[in-house]
């Protein structure tokens, strides 16, 4: 199993994205978080929906994932937030070591 992972979540606005980003970094649950404005299209409760959201791309370790997920759930305003963990199978060794050193 991969030691490193990328976690994706979306936030309804910049304020919530910044709050989650700050909490994860301050608690050393992530090494780096990128924010990007996205247009999301989905079916929710039987209705076709579209919304502008902020996508967070969170670089972390598999070890930190449970606490990271719990913190996102605690701070997130959605009833069912998107939280997806993707394994990082390979990467620049120096960068991955920095990720490891940055996460508790």
**What class would the helix/strand composition place it in?**
alpha+beta
Helix content: 25-40%
Low-confidence stretches: none
Shape: globular
Largest pleated sheet: 4 strands, antiparallel
Topology order in helix (H) and strand (E) letters:
EHEEHEH
How many strands appear in the DSSP assignment?
A: 4
Mean pLDDT, to the nearest integer, reads: 97
Distance between the termini: 19 Å
Sum up the structure in keywords.
four-stranded antiparallel β-sheet; 3 helices; 104 residues; alpha+beta; globular
Could you walk me through the main structural features you see in this protein, from its secondary elements to its overall organization?
The chain is 33% helix and 39% strand. By secondary structure, the protein is α+β, with helices and mostly antiparallel strands. β2 and β3 (47-61) form a beta hairpin. The longest helix is centred in the N-terminal third of the chain and has 13 residues, at 14-26. This is Divalent-cation tolerance protein CutA.
What's a quick, concise take on this entry?
It is built from three helices and four strands.
What topology emerges from the helices and strands here?
Layout: E1 4-11, H1 14-26, E2 32-44, E3 47-61, H2 65-75, E4 84-88, H3 93-102
Antiparallel strand pairs: 1-3, 1-4, 2-3
